[in-house]
Design goal:
Blueprint lengths: L3 E5 L1 E5 L4 E5 L3 H8 L3 E5 L5 H7 L2 E4 L12 H25 L4 E4 L1 H9 L3 E4 L2 H4 L4 E9 L4 H6 L2 E7 L2 E5 L4 E6 L5 E6 L4 E4 L20 H17 L1
Parallel strand pairs: 1-4, 1-5, 5-6, 6-13
Antiparallel strand pairs: 2-3, 7-10, 8-9, 8-11, 11-12, 12-13
Length: 234
């Protein structure tokens, strides 16, 4: 049976009925499906324990801050900043309790760090003098980096974030960095949790961002296969 991969729904806004909702960019379920998994969205914080029992792993998505419909973007951002850390933390704790694999992307990485007691720095470019929004740069992988084992010690990644890890949470380890020192990948020292500050779901196939970066399909294949291996070992 193909592994079932839960995907957190991010805050959204229904322009027709003026109600809140949950959505995910299609690149996430497409990446899971292409890797051999079955994507399954989690719609509500009230069902996280049930999904942690049902699914074989969890993919925590990035932000919806740059979703279409600019007139509604401030409202989406406001909901996301308030709701996502709470929703993501509930999911992380539920899947961690079940000892099932978790993979975080961008905001997903940040929420994992917050869940375990770390801190973030917002708009860090104003203090650090480095730009990580709408750009691309090298990623330098350490010996424990999953991405490094797949793509080499140094490779090009996209960059779409204005927050970064400030204090790394207890139990988490940094495994890859940008040349200016921003943490780009983390792992948990004892739980099957990994996360990436960049967006591997946007780096698949021929139309990837950035084009000079690696095709990251193998990263999703690795995660789906890990979820299957953990499930089958039970």
């Amino acid at each position: 049976m193909k592994p079932i991969i839960a995907i957190n729904g991010a805050s959204a806004f229904d322009r027709q009925f003026f109600t809140k909702g949950k959505v995910a960019f299609k690149a996430y379920p497409q990446a899971v499906a292409a890797a051999g998994g079955v994507p399954l969205m989690v719609p509500s914080i009230h069902s996280v324990d049930e999904y942690a029992w049902l699914a074989d792993g969890l993919l925590l998505t990035g932000s919806l801050s740059f979703a279409p419909a600019p007139a509604y973007t401030p409202l989406v951002n406001k909901m996301e900043e308030k709701e996502r850390p709470i929703f993501d933390s509930a999911l992380v704790l539920a899947f961690a309790k079940a000892k099932k694999p978790i993979m975080g992307v961008c905001l997903g990485l940040q929420c994992i760090n917050l869940t375990f007691g770390g801190t973030l720095k917002n708009h860090f470019k104003l203090e650090d003098g480095v730009e990580h929004m709408l750009t691309a740069h090298p990623c330098i992988a350490g010996t424990e980096s999953i991405a490094g084992k797949l793509f080499g010690k140094e490779f090009i990644i996209n960059s779409r974030h204005e927050r970064r890890i400030d204090t790394l949470a207890p139990g988490l380890e940094a495994t890859a960095w940008s040349p200016d020192g921003v943490i780009e990948e983390i792992k948990h020292e004892s739980l099957p949790i990994w996360a990436f500050e960049w967006h591997p779901e946007r780096m698949r196939g021929d139309d990837r961002d950035p084009p000079e970066g690696p095709d990251t399909t193998p990263l999703f294949e690795w995660f789906v296969n890990t979820c299957a291996a953990v499930r089958d070992a039970e």
